[in-house]
Amino acid sequence: MVYHKRNLKIMKLSLVLGTAFVLSPLIVLGDFLPHENESFMNTCTNNTLKLDFDSRVNIYKDNIISDSTECIIIHGSSVNFHEGCFDRLSNLKHLEVQVNSLYESNIFNNGNFTNIVELKISSSNRGYDTDLTINSVYPSLQYLDLSNNNIRIRDSLTYSFPNLTYFNLSMNSIGSVENLYTLRNLKYLDLSYNKLREFKWKETNNLLSLVLNYNVMTNIGDSYYDTINLAGLYNLVNLSVVGNTISNISPYAFTDTVNLQRLDLSWNSLTTLTSSTFYRMEYLEVLLADNNQFDMIPSMSLNLTTLSLDCNRITNITDRSLVNLPKLRKLSLKGNNITYIMPDAFQNKKFLEELYLNDNHLSYLPVNWYKPMQNLRLLDVSGNKFSRLEFIIQSSNIPVTRLYVERNPLELVEWSTFQMIPKNMTIYLHMGEDHSVSSCKQQNSGSLDYLL
Known about the structure:
Layout: E1 4-8, E2 21-22, E3 30-33, E4 48-59, E5 64-65, E6 71-81, E7 94-102, E8 118-123, E9 130-131, E10 143-145, E11 151-152, E12 166-168, E13 188-190, E14 199-200, E15 209-211, E16 219-221, E17 228-229, E18 238-240, E19 248-249, E20 262-264, E21 286-288, E22 306-308, E23 316-317, E24 330-332, E25 340-341, E26 354-356, E27 378-380, E28 402-404, H1 415-420, E29 426-428
Parallel strand pairs: 2-5, 4-6, 6-7, 7-8, 8-10, 9-11, 10-12, 12-13, 13-15, 14-17, 15-18, 16-17, 16-19, 18-20, 20-21, 21-22, 22-24, 23-25, 24-26, 26-27, 27-28, 28-29
Antiparallel strand pairs: 1-3
């Protein structure tokens, strides 16, 4: 996670064994603001203590004492938390531990966590799988980030986290969700980069956002044999399954998720989607299906405002391809094999504002292509085969204000074409650039990029 700090005064201390630091409200004052995301709580309003360690450190009982400090941030190479080391921090609400190695201790059982609301623990160099064992109770905890710890969950967490709403378990060794679905207040769950072969939630719950990126699941459906089963997730508004090996989606897969607003299917093995799959999904606004194997734009009747099908195998845009998507504001088809666009391909696209056709094989646009799109402000046709600018700019009435034509084999621009360019249009024109560069990149399984 990325933290934004505003007016934050940070104290850097060297922790000496046997020394107690007694903090008063006047020592560290500041305003801690987490990432601007609704899943975070803005809990730190007063004292923040930051400890940076360059070497292996032990933190013992009574090393840190304060009745007022609400937030502690610990960064370092290797830290060992001993029993009771947080007992003398009665008002602690936010604790972040981001170190290379946690050793010889279980931080969850080493202090008084009655008031803690946010807890982030990350240990990037733990090279072996570890069972998560929690004997304490966190009655106030709402936000928990345990990403990048190689942990497994074998015990129920209901007793320990009765009010947890946000749980980030990305980059671990989790193979089952069986001990998670009893967290009935959970709204945000991230299980990216784990070892999940299936996801089946057994009870109706309050989940709003579910991220399952980079696991090993193969399909989405409504039967016992499907690897992703969304039954009971009535409140879900965001679903991301990027980077699995999904090749099939059942027509009944989204029967219960009728409130879904954002769906990311990118980096899978899909070849088709049907209208029946999205039946009753009237609230779906954003559909991302980049880097799959579509050879045509799937037939859908939806209220989408954003559709992205980058880096597939689409060869043309027909007059039926987009006709049932009248509310589109952003359409991205970059990195395909599009050679032809039919004259009526953009009919009823009066709300479209951004159109990305870059890195295809287009040499011209159909006559009067722009007329249905009077709200279009951005057009990107860079990396195509346009040899003349007039094959794009056909009239001074084109509504586009930003036109990208880099990486095209433009030979010359006629004076008559210059005269047609609207006064408020900016053209990004770099003639002579290498137009073989593609906007499609190889999948990067070592990074985590998700939207809650």
